[in-house]
Specification:
209 residues, alpha+beta, Glutaredoxin
Length: 209
């Protein structure tokens, strides 16, 4: 293949990426957060936050796309989940999330909670119902109760409520990039892949600064 053909082949491969980037516009596919919020990521890292609720079917359906993205997440990106508490019924599920984190079982219990609610139709609307799920997965009831009712968990819940308000988010799942930009599947174009595309676009936008 001649040198010119190599160049043309490369341009063909890059064209979809260029078209994709050109179609992502501030105010449409994402919005700027004013003022920008402080991130938890260490210096030099780009923070991506997912705001979610365990009872949200859209959040549950977004999980496979999110997990696929996480497997290839760039080394300079830090990913954080924040459970939204936009309605009173969501609060106890945020408490479950931070309880799992306090017990060091986030990776396992995150998916167990989602599956229990969406595959097995378990509401998990009470402490006893949530405790039963944790016990089924090897966590002692006393250990669960201590973490569930701890000051540390309550503090993280309060901090999360404040962050969601400052982000200006009103629905889930919502993605926040580096405390500066907010998007969701509807805003991004309607599909989970559209939202992933916006995440990658905003990461590159921050990286280029």
């Amino acid at each position: 293949m001649s040198r010119m053909k190599y160049i043309l082949a490369g341009l063909v491969l890059l064209l979809p990426l260029s078209v994709q980037s050109a179609s992502i516009v501030e105010g449409f596919e994402y919005k700027r957060i004013v003022p920008a919020q402080q991130t938890q990521a260490p210096g030099g890292k780009i923070e991506v936050v997912e705001l979610f609720w365990y009872g949200c079917p859209h959040c549950y359906r977004f999980e496979p796309s999110l997990q696929k993205w996480l497997k290839n997440k760039p080394d300079d990106v830090v990913f954080i989940r924040i459970p939204a508490q936009m309605n009173p019924g969501w609060v106890i599920h945020a408490q479950a999330f931070y309880t799992a984190e306090a017990l060091g079982v986030s990776d396992k219990m995150h998916h167990k909670i989602f599956d229990a609610m969406h595959k097995n139709n378990r509401k998990l609307n009470t402490a006893d119902e949530i405790a039963a799920l944790f016990v089924e997965n090897g966590i002692g009831r006393k250990k669960f109760d201590k973490a569930f009712n701890s000051f540390g968990v309550k503090t993280k819940m309060a901090n999360a409520r404040g962050m969601v308000q400052r982000y200006g988010a009103h629905s889930v799942p919502t993605i926040i990039v580096n405390g500066k930009y907010r998007s969701d599947a509807t805003m991004a174009g309607g599909t989970h892949q559209d939202l992933v595309n916006v995440i990658n676009f905003l990461i590159n936008k921050e990286r280029s600064k």
